[in-house]
Write a structure and sequence with these properties.
This protein has helices at residues 23-42, 78-90, 104-110, 137-149, 169-174, 195-198, 201-204, 211-214, 226-246, 272-278; strands at 4-5, 12-19, 47-54, 95-97, 125-132, 152-160, 178-187, 190-192, 248-249, 251-257, 262-267. The protein is α/β, with parallel strands linked by helices. The chain starts with a strand and ends with a helix.
């Protein structure tokens, strides 16, 4: 199987920013924290990292049913709760920002490596990783625009379908189990299309609202299934494990169904040789 290789012989710094700490995002934080702890204990020289979680949402009682929160977390910021919990559990530095990202400029500011004061060893390659764990296309459009302008970025987006609010009983019963995980890459002149390049209807969506625009309005969101959230996180972690631990990528995107426990990965669209020339 052909694979993209990420600077296999050079030390790297991964500047990781995750947008969203809810259903999909919460389980990703749980697993990624443990992976980063493992990488650091095995080889802290070859790979270093920053990990920042961004979300303004507070934990609500309804979140306890399908998100990794406890009753004592209610009314606390989701990003703060999970960053502190897993930073302490796995002894890794995890930062958080209590805000929504609603512009390209705000997203730019979330990455420490975009700051003029950021320092890195000359021999070390810096690669930013953006993890999108949001439930709206308006936020995805912002991340897509940022992706097009950042020439050292891996953008991984995961999403799940909501449970149907109307229809026949069988349709409702089988709904809410499908999802996707798409890995886009922009490095110099090389682009592996991100989620909005694979699912172009995202860019055409005029009805989706940003998180702050939804507040106080009569917006009915479809509920999600915990099983789908956990499978989305598991598949996302498959991509992150390849990139961070193995310095490789085998697939471009994966569609899955948590009801049937099935997944369908799509291979990289261009040859291995073209990738290796770009990323050595």
């Amino acid at each position: 199987m052909k694979a993209l290789e990420f600077f296999p012989t050079r030390p790297m710094h991964f500047d990781i920013v995750q947008i969203g700490a809810g259903g999909n995002g919460g389980y990703i934080i749980q697993r990624l924290s443990k992976l980063l702890s493992s990488i650091r204990s095995i080889d802290s020289v070859k790979s270093t990292f920053n990990y920042t979680i961004v979300d303004l949402d507070k934990v609500e009682e309804k979140n306890l049913q399908r998100q990794p929160f406890l009753p004592k977390d209610i009314d606390k910021n989701k990003a703060k709760v999970l960053s502190e919990r897993y930073s302490k559990s796995y002894q890794v530095p995890i930062f958080y920002r209590e805000e929504y990202v609603e512009s390209v400029e705000e997203l730019y500011e979330c990455f420490p490596s975009n700051n003029d004061s950021f320092l890195i060893e000359e021999s070390r390659v810096n690669m930013r990783i953006l993890i999108g764990a949001v439930d709206n296309h308006a936020s995805r459009k912002i991340m897509h625009e940022y992706f097009l302008n950042d020439k050292s970025l891996i953008y991984i987006d995961c999403g799940v379908d909501g449970i149907l609010l109307e229809g026949d009983d069988e349709e409702i019963k089988r709904s809410g189990y499908s999802g996707h995980c798409v890995c886009g890459i922009h490095y110099n002149s090389m682009i592996l299309p991100p989620v909005a390049g694979v699912y172009t209807d995202i860019l055409e969506d005029k009805d989706s609202l940003l998180p702050s625009q939804s507040c106080g309005q009569n917006v009915v969101s479809q509920p999600q299934r915990m099983q789908s959230n956990e499978m989305a996180a598991l598949i996302t972690m498959g991509y992150l494990n390849q990139i961070l631990a193995e310095r490789r990528l085998y697939h471009h995107y994966t569609n899955f169904n948590a009801l049937t426990h099935s997944s369908r990965p799509t291979l990289l669209p261009i040859s291995k040789d073209q990738y290796i020339v770009s990323l050595r």
